[in-house]
Design goal:
36% strand, 129 residues, 2 helices, alpha+beta
């Protein structure tokens, strides 16, 4: 019985395909999780004004735009001060809009205030008493 080298090539390509699928899965799943979390928070969350306190560029690119990690500070209805982060791809307008010191409108999950979602137009809210 002789060894057929073609099976070694098949095994190599199979392992490469599995590795590529795992890489693609690890790149796609965080975005899907964040989208689902933000959708749930937009439906049931409580709106507040928040200050951007930090912006950090990540190593990710989304649609030819660099992804930034934005850190927000806000106060819940119960008076608890919260700092929460969100990742967003930013173009040049977004880079200026989401500069530290600016204010935005966002929603937070009342059960877990670390879960936040930006309003689509993200302009500061005019909140009544």
């Amino acid at each position: 019985m002789s060894f057929d080298w073609i099976y070694l090539a098949y095994l190599f390509f199979f392992c490469m395909a599995i590795g590529m699928l795992r890489l693609a899965w690890s790149m796609v799943m965080p975005g899907i999780r964040q989208y689902r979390m933000e959708s749930a928070v937009r439906k049931t969350g409580i709106g507040v004004n928040a200050d951007i306190i930090h912006r950090r560029k990540t190593d990710l690119i989304d649609g030819e735009m660099p992804v930034y990690q934005l850190t927000f500070a806000f106060t819940t209805q119960q008076g608890v001060e919260v700092r929460a982060t969100l990742e967003r791809p930013l173009d040049m307008d977004g880079f200026a809009r989401y500069a530290p010191g600016n204010s935005v409108a966002l929603k937070y999950d009342p059960q877990n205030p670390q879960r936040i979602a930006l309003y689509p137009n993200d302009r500061p809210l005019i909140l009544g008493e």
